[in-house]
Design brief:
Layout: H1 2-19, H2 42-52, H3 56-76, H4 96-100
């Protein structure tokens, strides 16, 4: 209980300093009444969060990057092959037949 009392005194001192009240003015803490029963849709909360938070664009970018990485991983799981061929001759001639049969 002593720690709570000390924290209360510190908070009251900060409040007096902020508001300019003197030490003789009595401050009485009043608990708020019953809370208001309120329902909020998840879509509304997300819309407001994206509108009021600068990191929202970063979240959307990270989601897009993750979706891109998943699509790449799915496409890379298939068989990928590369076919390379080279044809060359060391003989020289004016026709291909003379080059093969000198």
């Amino acid at each position: 209980m002593g720690i709570a009392r000390r924290d209360e005194e510190i908070a009251l001192l900060k409040l007096r300093t902020y508001t300019g009240l003197s030490d003789t003015d009595r401050i009485v803490l009043v608990l708020p009444g019953a809370t208001i029963g309120m329902t909020v849709s998840a879509d509304s909360v997300i819309r407001q969060a994206y509108a009021n938070r600068s990191d929202a664009i970063g979240f959307l970018r990270r989601i897009a990057e993750a979706q891109r990485d998943v699509a790449k991983a799915r496409s890379d799981s298939r068989l990928n092959a590369t076919l390379t061929a080279q044809v060359g001759y060391s003989n020289t001639a004016t026709t291909v037949r003379r080059c093969i049969n000198p």
